[in-house]
Write a structure and sequence with these properties.
Structural class: mainly alpha
Radius of gyration: 14 Å
Shape: globular
Distance between the termini: 26 Å
Helix content: over 70%
Order of helices and strands: HHHH
Strand content: under 5%
Number of strands: 0
């Protein structure tokens, strides 16, 4: 359920704004999205895993807050992230 180093590095390379960027909002949103997709797959087979369900809901809330922040700071970057990740059709 945790992302391995290669997956995380690939996400950082895709969403970085400048060299050495590892913690921008875009990167955090992309990493959270990957973790959410992983946990969603786990939840499909383990419907009664309520601890994981709570963790999943917390990740979704954190991603929502980051998206709200990014939308208030820079709308263009917000729309770029949404289109790259395939969120909100």
């Amino acid at each position: 359920m945790e992302l391995n180093k290669a997956e995380k590095t690939k996400i950082i390379e895709t969403f970085k704004i400048n060299e050495g960027d590892t913690g921008s909002s875009e990167i955090q949103i992309a990493i959270l999205t990957a973790r959410i997709k992983s946990l969603t797959g786990h939840m499909a087979g383990s419907r009664h895993d309520f601890i994981t369900k709570r963790g999943l809901l917390m990740l979704v809330g954190q991603r929502r807050r980051l998206l709200k922040y990014l939308a208030s700071e820079n709308v263009d970057r917000y729309h770029q992230v949404l289109s790259k990740l395939g969120l909100r059709k």
